[in-house]
Design goal:
The chain is of the alpha/beta class. The chain folds into two domains: 7-127 and 304-325, Rossmann fold; 129-297 and 333-353, Dihydrodipicolinate Reductase, domain 2 (2-Layer Sandwich), CATH 3.30.360. Helices cover 34% and strands 22% of the residues. The chain contains eleven helices and 14 strands. Helix 5 (104-116) packs antiparallel against helix 11 (328-346). The model has no long low-confidence stretch (mean pLDDT 95).
């Protein structure tokens, strides 16, 4: 139910991502920050004091906060299920960080619980809400590329050893769910299938190239086949040094056109059949000279405006009685693709077909 000042948001977790959530909620239309929960009193009060909201260390008391409508979950990836289930049973709508969870079984339980309790479940994929993505999607849907032949995603990022050492959950199967693919590349993989369509099979290799003391990969390459018949490549890494970081890219090529998107800009926007708006789009979304990739080398450099748009879409969906752009089943797809890549990589590059029936057994890449 909507309250004065819009829907009341509550944040679960008080790490770096929780700060993004707080800034996004405070800047959005249709919502306000009502409360925050963390097992750490210090962390909860830090955000509560900064944003003038209530702090809780008791999760049941948090869920009972007057005026709480939506819960945003910003805990480590493998700790999303339990707060989601409790919030759903308390009748609260849920917006959950990527990935929804670290196994298909846990994701499916989240989806079932939210459906059974008639609450919304939305995933957080802020890159879907960029202006460049909107133009890209419209061009694809208008058939401007013709028959899509190649569709690729490149995420050549860097994370220091200190990044992985900063939390004992980082780079673990249990709480991180994976490495460079599941934690960093998932946003761009989500964009790839959003723009090019469903993936039906993968052949992949992955390894731990430069980091130490983690279970998961920091370097991976997959060849993918789409339902449409198109082929493609996914490259995801946190072992590609750059002082500023390389931008994430999605490339689609077809019989009638090609689009290369670099973060929120275009390096290629070419079509057989020109339109009057093409020159303006190329001019307005030209990559800025010397620009760093968004979050490519420093996760703290990510802009919160994408989260803001993501939250605003969820509020609009609630008001209109429709699904959010990235609902539970939609957010599940990128997880399934990544788990298929892991299965193939751990089997020495053997083809793996989607859909997966269950989460594959995972072994250390280290």
């Amino acid at each position: 139910m909507a309250k004065k000042g819009g829907y009341g948001f509550g944040i679960v977790g008080c790490g770096m991502i929780a700060d993004f959530h707080a800034r996004a909620v405070e800047s959005m239309k249709g919502g306000h920050l009502a409360c925050v929960y963390s097992r750490s009193k210090t962390n909860a009060e830090r955000i509560a004091n900064a944003y003038n909201c209530s702090a809780y260390q008791d999760y049941r008391a948090f869920l009972a906060h007057p005026g709480l409508d939506l819960v945003t979950i910003a805990t480590p990836s493998g700790a999303h299920l339990e707060p989601c289930v409790q919030a759903a049973r308390a009748g609260k709508h849920i917006i959950c960080e990527k990935p929804l969870e670290v196994t298909l079984e846990r994701v499916d339980r989240m989806i079932r619980e939210c459906k059974a309790n008639k609450v919304m479940l939305a995933g957080i994929f802020p890159r879907r809400f960029s202006d460049a993505t909107a133009f890209f999607k419209k061009a694809v849907e208008a058939g401007r590329l013709g028959k899509i032949t190649l569709a690729d995603a490149y995420i050549k990022w860097h994370r220091t050893q200190e990044y992985y050492d900063s939390g004992d959950w980082r780079g673990t199967w249990k709480l991180d769910g994976g490495g460079a693919l599941m934690n960093q590349s998932i946003h761009t993989i989500d964009l790839l299938y959003y723009l090019a369509g469903d993936i039906v099979s993968v052949c992949a290799y992955a390894d731990l190239a430069t980091h130490k003391n983690i279970e998961t990969e920091d370097n991976a390459v997959a060849i993918v086949r789409f339902k449409s018949g198109a082929l493609g490549v996914i490259e995801g890494s946190t072992a590609c040094y750059s002082p500023t970081g390389h931008p994430a890219e999605v490339h689609l090529c077809g019989s009638d056109g090609s689009i290369f998107m670099q973060d929120n800009s275009f390096t290629v926007w070419d079509f057989k059949k020109k339109r009057s708006a093409d020159k303006k789009i190329k001019r307005s979304y030209r990559p800025p000279s010397g620009a760093a990739g968004a979050g490519a080398a420093d996760p703290k450099a990510i802009d919160f405006s994408g989260h803001q748009k993501n939250f605003e879409d969820a509020v609009r969906a609630l008001k209109a009685g429709r699904k959010p752009l990235v609902d539970g089943p939609e957010a599940r797809k990128s997880i399934e693709i990544i788990l298929a890549i892991y299965r193939s990589a751990l089997k020495g590059g053997k083809p793996v077909h989607l859909p997966l029936k269950r989460t594959p057994v995972r072994r250390s890449f280290g």
